[in-house]
Structure formats: structure tokens, C-alpha cells
Amino acid sequence: MTSGVPPALSQDLFPQDIIGWIFQLVWIIVFVIFMFYGQRIQTTIMLKEIASSLSRLKLMRDRGRKIAISTIQEIGKPSEDPTSRVDRFLEHVDIEPVSLDPSGIIERLDHLIDVRDVRFKDEVKVMAPLADDTQVNNLTNVLEAAIALNQVYKIIRHFYLMGKKTLSIYIIMQLQMILPLIMKESEAFASALTAFSLGQPIGDGVGSLVAAKLMQGKEKRQISKDIVVSKVPIEGRTAYVLKAQGPGGNVGKPGEAIKEVLEENDGKVAMAIVIDAAQKLEGEKLGEVTEGVGVAIGGPGVEKYKVEEIAVKYKVPVNAVLIKEDIGDVVSTMRKELLDGVEAAIERINRLIHEKTKEGDIVIIAGIGNTIGIGQ
Amino acid sequence: MSEKPPVVKKMSSLFLIVIFVMLALSIAALYQALEVYRNSGKFDLASITLSFSAIALSSYMFFQMRAKPMRLGFEMQKVFTTIQCSNCSFTSTRTFQRGDYILKEIEPCPQCNNKMIISSIYREVDEKEKEKETKLLS
User: Fold this and answer.
1) Is the pLDDT at A246 greater than 90, yes or no?
2) CA–CA separation, A154 and A148 (whole Å)
3) pTM of the model
């Protein structure tokens, strides 16, 4: 294009046909590279992304461990450094009962949960000798969140290193695809750790909060392990309102408590209402209240099973009142929108009692969830 | 816990090289198109548009790749405690203090001297986060 014309300085620097050649060459090189090494490049990029998330998870794990140690030192005033004990505790594993023969698995699981609970609390009491019962419960929750962060980090590291070793795109791709969800859950655990260390109520406690508001000012008694109950008159009916004993981080054994109340009353209960936090689907509003039938108790299923079993025995209808929230909100400090949800849930309970039972009936209202930061 | 979140460098050297090569080539192409216009008076709109787009894209990618503070989830949030008098309508809100819990009885009411309780403890969410949620819902 410039031939025949005396070249200017700029044309000397960037002759047009040479630039065109460079572009063509770059294009061909890129094409060839992508043709032969496309998958390898994709794998490398994915591994880099995983590595970056893994370093974030490591920071979370280390920070969680640090918070756990400093909270134990601050609250429990131990005479010796709890670091080595905490480090040992972070490696704790729970082995599920064998399911090859499912008969009696619920009892075996229940026993394991009890053993775990006692073991955790004993360990915390040794680590933090000056902590009271509420603080022991909170510290147990702190350590549980730290264990979760440690486990997540180690599992992701395992698959990352396996993917790197084998360069299997299938391992790497699966890991990269679920990573956003894992990061979200890990952030939730990190947030939970902060809330537990300060004893703040968490989103999971909405059910407990509903029960606490209903039983406020009434006499309470312990009915089963870590569960308190109050007799509350509601529109001429007698409601047995129960929740985990707060304000320490506790879920108690609500299934056992419901069973106890039913047996105390020879099964003459018109209705049981279970209130709990439920997973919000994307697009749903935080704190939205929905109703349904069935036992709304999360966790491994032991408490849910107990309620289902006793409800069938006495033919008691079980209703559920659910307050919707995101996984991130479940374990982090309660949001204001959830408080509005609590008020709406109380209205729903009153309406349910009014519509489905008659005066003089007995009703059970069970507020499910971790009662950290919620008294009674 | 009140420490600032660590700043983690997110600059990848490979991407940085790609961005700078792209930027250099697009500037060269733009220069070439302007030279052609100066010498022959021919205005190559396609080349100029493409060069400007490439410059804009590489600059955008560079700014996107800048080191950002990493969010780990341990950040301290604004948590408030609402105190309510059980007798009169007195209500006050203060920042959360360790030891606060819902339904805890605290100091007497400054208006009627009756007992006061903590009626709620809640976390305030950033306006940005709220806006994001509202946008997603709409």
C-alpha cells in the first residue's frame, strides 16, 4: 500500500503490510494453540480459579481457628494455651452408623448424637474452665463452625490436588462447577462463627424466637434434654409451647419433648404446630411465611422421626409454619426482615388454632432451631 | 475480628501480558488507520472503531483485574439491640453488646422505672446488598 511513495517516519515504524502479517500470524498461532492445547488451557484456567478459591478457604479456616482460640481464651480464661487442644479438636470426625441393615438406625444415630454432644461439651469445659453453661454452648457452636470450615478446606484441597495430579478435566470441572455454592456455604459458616462467638441470635433461631415470644412471662419447666415448655392459654385453648433452652447455642431434643407432652396428656392433643426456618428458593422473599403439614425439623432426622412416630400413634395432625430464609441467613446474625417474619408466623399460629381447634382443646407449639441469643 | 479483611492480589501475570499485547496492537492499528487518513485522506471507519473497542476492552479488563479486598465472611456487621419497656411505650435501640440476648431483663425504664427487656437483636444489611436483592426479585 505504501510502495512508490517515499516512506514517512511513521510508516517506517509501522509499515502497513507488516502489521497485517503480524495480525495474520497471531491469528494462526492462536488457532493452532487452541486446536491442540485448548483443553489443557481450559484445565489450567479452571485449576487457577480453584486454587484462588482454595486460598480463600484456607484464609477462612485459619481465621476461624484464630477466632475460636481467642474466644476460648477470652471467655474461659484457661490456665494453659488451648491452641493444641483446639487443633486436635478441629480434626474431629463423626462416623455415621452402618445403614446396611437399616433396622434401629435411628436409635443408633440418636445415641451417637448424644455421645458427640457430651464429648464436645466436656472438651469445651476443659478448654474453658471458667465458662458458664450458656458460654459452653456458645463455644461448642464456635468450634463446630471452625470444624466445618476446616473440613470444607480439606475436602476441596483433596479434590484440587487429585485434579492437578491426574489432570482429569472431569474432576476439575465438577469441582469448579460446585465451587460457588461451596464458597457461599463457607462464607455462611464464617459469618456463623462471628455470631456464635458474640452470642448473637442467628436466622435458624426464628422458630425458637416465635416460641419465646409466645411463652414470655409464663412459668417454664424443663421437659426433656435442653428443652423448656410453658402452658400458654390461647383463645380458650391450652397451648404447650416449647423451645430449646436459651440463651446459649442449643437445639435440644424437640422430638422427645413433643413425645413427652403427648404422653403426659394421654395423646389427647388436637393439633401440633412446628415452626422452623426453611430454605428460601431464589426469588422468594426473605422472612416470607408459609404453611404446610408435616414435621418441620431439620438435622439428621432423629427428632423428626420421633415426632412422626408419636403423631401416628395418637393420630395427632401435625402442621408446619415455615419462615423462609437463605442458607447465608440461617447461620448468620438474624436480619430485621426475619423479625417481621416472626410476627407473621405468630399471626398464622393464632389463625390455625382458631380455625382448626375448638375451645378447651390442647395444642402443642414447638419452636425449632438454635436458640443462641434468645432467652425465654 | 475487627481487623480489616486482607487484600489479596488477583493480578494474573499471564492475563496481564495478554491485556498489554492487546492494548499495544490496538494502539498500533489505530495509529496506522490515522496515518492512512493523513496520507491518503481515506477514512477507515471499521479499523478505527475496532481499535477503539479493543483499547476500551483491554482497559476495562485491566481495571477489573485490579487487586480487590477479599471478603471472607468474618467482617463485623452492624448489629443492633432494641430495648422495650414492659409497661410504657418506651423503646430504644443501641449497638449490640456482648451478653445481650432477646428477652433479657435489663436496667429499669428511664420513664416509668419499670423493668425493660431486650425485644430484638438484628443485623442491618448494606443498602447495596438490599438493592441487589430487590433487583433480583423484580
Assistant:
1) no
2) 10
3) 0.82
